[in-house]
Amino acid sequence: MLILALDTALEACAAAVLDTDAGELLAQEQLLMKRGHAEALMPMIARVMQSANLAFTALDRIAVTVGPGSFTGLRVGISAARGLALAAKRPAVGLTTLSAYAAAIVGQSGPVPVISAIDARHDHVYFQIVAGDGSLLLRPAVAPIDEAIAASKFGPPHLVGNAAKILAERWPKDAPQPVSIDAQPAPDISWVAWLGAAANPDTNPARPFYLKAPDAKPAAQPLLAAQAATS
């Protein structure tokens, strides 16, 4: 199976092509950035596909991170994945950034739980907790940092994600300490690709996964509401 994987959810713009039969990435590229994903993504996809020496119609599916993450970044990646999938007549699948973060550790951590954490700002984090075998212990949620730490009652965890250090710095001194702290600015694109290969397109659609309402609001909404109130 040939998978094109995309990630623009957080502080990176990344694309990769995975050949699951060969068990390897044919091409990959990642640029760390907080802004500018919209300008960077399509040229990056073109370079990756050229490096892999593939036409888009040769792909079996397109995988993309769907959140939690930046409202604008998510829209860039998801729009690109949907557009390419429509043009190539291939399915697009969505994977959460929390799962992509955890995937690099799951299977290597034995019985140790994995907490994926993303900075949600305003002293909050998006997080989920999985067991060492990947089974879900605590479903994705958004909570104050101290509440997220208090929710970890499954033993000393691996911390991963762009908020891993934030959790570690607030971790109670009298509690069993985290086994490891992996503060990646964005998930490894190779794991987005592998998760995309395993995902069911019917149950993992390429649409935004929000745990709270986005901070960005369409400017037209207040105007429309005001017009409705006076009509």
Descriptive notes:
With 231 residues, the chain is α/β, with parallel strands linked by helices. The protein has seven helices and ten strands. It folds into two domains: 2-98 and 187-198, ATPase, nucleotide binding domain (Nucleotidyltransferase, domain 5), CATH 3.30.420.40; 105-182, Nucleotidyltransferase, domain 5 (2-Layer Sandwich). It has helices at 37-52, 71-88, 97-103, 145-150, 164-170, 189-198, 220-230, and strands spanning 2-7, 12-19, 24-32, 61-65, 92-95, 114-121, 124-130, 136-144, 158-160, 180-182. α1 (37-52) packs parallel to α2. The model is unreliable at 219-231 (pLDDT under 50).
Protein topology:
Layout lengths: L1 E6 L4 E8 L4 E9 L4 H16 L8 E5 L5 H18 L3 E4 L1 H7 L10 E8 L2 E7 L5 E9 H6 L7 E3 L3 H7 L9 E3 L6 H10 L21 H11 L1
Parallel strand pairs: 1-4, 4-5, 6-9, 9-10
Antiparallel strand pairs: 1-2, 2-3, 6-7, 7-8
Helix pairs in contact: 1-2, 3-6
Protein name: tRNA (Adenosine(37)-N6)-threonylcarbamoyltransferase complex dimerization subunit type 1 TsaB
GO biological process, one term: tRNA threonylcarbamoyladenosine modification
Keywords: Transferase
How would you briefly describe this protein structure?
The protein has 231 residues and is α/β, with parallel strands linked by helices. The chain has helices spanning 37-52, 71-88, 97-103, 145-150, 164-170, 189-198, 220-230; strands spanning 2-7, 12-19, 24-32, 61-65, 92-95, 114-121, 124-130, 136-144, 158-160, 180-182. The protein has a 5-stranded mixed sheet with strand order 3-2-1-4-5, sandwiched between helices. The chain has a 5-stranded mixed sheet with strand order 8-7-6-9-10, sandwiched between helices.
